[in-house]
Specification:
Layout lengths: L1 H28 L8 E15 L6 E17 L2 E7 L15 E11 L2 E9 L20 H4 L7 E9 L1 E3 L2 E10 L14 E9 L4 E12 L4 E14 L2 E12 L2 E15 L2 E11 L8 E14 L3 E12 L8 E9 L1
Length: about 325
């Protein structure tokens, strides 16, 4: 009897997700009227369940993301976008946050060259710059989730290139930022500089390096990091990883991870990741690692999917019971 009930609940959940995605796609397919130019609406909804023995609360449901994005085109050379996330404004936080995520004005004087002004993710890291809707895992690796070195927004501008030399695709990016983070003004006399270079020498192979150098807060604390990334995709297999080292918060830090995915069927993917990090290299036995295995069930590609992750946490010092189970139910349109 219990198995029948579970089957009915699972079938009902998947059916409802499919219906919601179909409805949203139908709504978004209609022309959105704009005051001038073209307007496009996108969104991302993520409902999480998390059981984390090291967190408070330990066992909770969470409205992780409720992103709403408007993209506009004044003309092909002038673009803009604004994204908000009401889920980031939580009543139980000590300090209320602004829902503003991205605010971008883009000028494209040439097909191979563009300039972004506003607030957006700094050009550092690979997984951190990937859309949250397209992640292989429920949560990003430590370079983003622990160190906040990637998947990190700031106010400033970037100059980006996108061109080919022969069959080799090259994407350089350089930018200047306040260095204080999302929705914050600068509080010191220096600007932070970030640069990244991505090369794709052959189809499916992605190679990248990045560097960030700046000062944070009025006392101008060093905020420096260097990273490297690699990714290879040949269906049904994907393998990728990152390495980063630097100094932030007055501490020297280091991290790396290696991830792999295998598409069992068109709708089911197995993923695994080894994620190592040291939050204070001058502190003895501070290294930690997280070993994650998971399944991704694609109802409608990344537009509707269910993710299940189990995370084993290991410490070089005394072992504690801090393993994690995460579930993500997602709709993206």
């Amino acid at each position: 009897m219990k198995n029948k009930i579970l089957f009915v609940v699972r079938y009902f959940s998947i059916t409802m997700l499919g219906l919601v995605v179909s409805l949203l796609q139908e709504m978004c397919a209609e022309q959105v009227e704009a005051g001038f130019g073209k307007i496009k609406l996108n969104g991302l909804m993520q409902f999480w369940y998390q059981n984390d023995n090291a967190a408070t609360p330990k066992d909770t449901f969470c409205l992780r993301r409720a992103e709403i994005k408007l993209s506009g085109e004044i003309k092909p050379e002038v673009l803009c976008s604004v994204m908000i996330d009401p889920a980031q404004v939580r009543e139980d936080d000590n300090k209320r946050k602004s829902p503003l995520q991205d605010f971008v004005v883009t000028l494209k004087p040439h097909k191979c060259f563009s300039i972004d002004f506003g607030q957006f993710k700094i050009p550092f890291g690979m997984e951190g710059l990937e859309s949250s809707a397209k992640l292989d895992f429920v949560e990003r690796a430590a370079v983003s989730s622990q160190f906040k070195w990637s998947d990190y927004r700031d106010i400033g501008f970037t100059i980006k290139g996108d061109f080919k030399v022969g069959n080799i695709k090259i994407q350089p990016t350089v930018g200047l930022f306040n260095g204080e983070g999302q929705n914050k003004l600068d509080v010191n006399a220096t600007k932070d500089i970030a640069g990244k270079l991505v090369v794709e020498p052959i189809e499916g192979l992605h190679l990248g390096v990045a560097h960030y150098n700046g000062k944070t807060a009025a006392n101008e604390t060093d905020n420096i990091r260097t990273g490297a990334e690699i990714k290879f995709v040949k269906e049904p297999i994907s393998v990728y990883g990152e390495y980063a080292t630097g100094k932030s918060g007055g501490k020297e830090k280091q991290t790396y991870y290696l991830s792999a995915g295998y598409k069992i069927t068109s709708s089911l993917q197995f993923v695994a990741r080894y994620d190592w990090y040291d939050s204070d290299m001058n502190k003895k036995d501070d290294e930690k690692h997280e070993d994650t295995i998971g399944l991704n069930y694609f109802i409608e590609k990344h537009n509707a999917k269910i993710q299940l992750n189990y995370v084993y946490r290991g410490e070089k010092a005394t072992k504690v019971d801090d393993d994690v189970i995460r579930v993500n139910i997602q709709i993206s349109y």
